[in-house]
């Protein structure tokens, strides 16, 4: 099938590459000329485990191409996938649909044979109707269906999630469009559930899922607070809870609060949509507020460790919003760092992949180290802010010899607490209190 993907970000690019790998002829379109040039030169524009190899293979076989031209991409496409950003409006916090609408208006003129326009971007309920009306207005004779195909890929696991999804949701009542999508996703037949629902339901499933996961993370974070006051250990509690299949063991890692380009934006958009519809989603509203406050609390914990030190030096491990990505959008680590900077701390940060993107946000307000030990040199406290697996394997003897004071605030529960105590660290983490500090 001939597929056109509009938008080459963290969703569009892995989707395009994945579909090419399934044998479809894919063309990815983006308005960002420099991005298209980089992709055309054979380079991947973002960090995503496993993507470069698949990208290279499909570029070489000619299964995937890149272009800045809508005309080249849309004419003759069987399916046009909209994967452009829907960032929050800075004032209202609603999803800003300007990129979706601009893309719909532009693509309309190039639709010739029957085409399925599949909205993969996360959009409020009813957006499919608006996209359909816009296309119809621009090209009254076009033969097309607009459907909703929400994305459930996680950054850092996009390739794995593309080929092994828990489900594929297709929102359309048009049997013609369903048939086309059935063909597009034929590879998944018998491997994963393909759910056909109405467009409104499909648009809602995406928000309801992300909001639920955000609530789940906040729940375990609140339980962690409880454990700290009562002497229980959140890791044991999460394990015990997770063994109940109704609860499940995933997304029960307590930490500094959720971040990223999805959960903060989507929970806010969900709350806005509900308010407009006259529904009070008090649980989600509460989680949004508490999750924002949690990052400040984390910063406070770190500052407590250096409150008696003049011009404290703080080492930060992790700048990305989570492990496995170079993405720093709404990163809890950066929000905490900004709070620390505001209090006058001198910071050296290290991230295996995200330093460049962090620098775009923080500039020279902090120093950037080339490795985790370099970041810790001369530090009064080390804050672990992102769950990169390499932090688990840290050589604590080496760390101890490099730091000015042996203090660690582990906001991701990455280090082995017993080992940290043995090596003489003043160690604290999330959801666990230690009766004896050696
Ligand atoms: C999320 C969803 O998990 C995907 O299913 C969805 O497709 C995507 O949003 C999207 O809407 O595009 P993503 O934002 O890539 O994916 O990252 P997650 O792995 O969900 O993590 C989000 C945040 O929650 C991170 O800050 C992470 O550190 C935090 N988190 C996650 C925890 O604090 N604890 C956990 O147990 C899990």
What does this structure look like?
By secondary structure, the protein is an alpha/beta fold. It has two domains: 196 residues, NAD(P)-binding Rossmann-like Domain (Rossmann fold); 240 residues, Rossmann fold (3-Layer(aba) Sandwich). Helices cover 43% and strands 14% of the residues. α12 packs across α13. It is globular, with a radius of gyration of 23 Å. The mean pLDDT is 96. The chain binds uridine-5'-diphosphate-glucuronic acid.
The structural domain count equals 2
The helix/strand class is alpha/beta
Number of helices: 17
CATH architecture heading of the largest domain: 3-Layer(aba) Sandwich
Low-pLDDT stretches: none
Euclidean distance between termini CA atoms: 65 Å
Bound ligands, named by name, code or SMILES: uridine-5'-diphosphate-glucuronic acid
Question: Based on DSSP secondary structure assignment, what is the total number of beta strands?
Answer: 14
What does the overall shape look like? Answer: globular
According to CATH, what is the topology of the largest domain? Rossmann fold
In the sheet with the most strands, the strands line up as 3-2-1-4-5-6
What is the residue-averaged pLDDT?
96
Assign the CATH class of the largest domain. Answer: Alpha Beta
Helix content: 40-55%
Oligomer: single chain
CATH superfamily of the largest domain: NAD(P)-binding Rossmann-like Domain
**β-strand amount:** 5-15%
| Main β-sheet description | 6 strands, parallel
Taking all Cα atoms into account, the compactness measure Rg is 23 Å
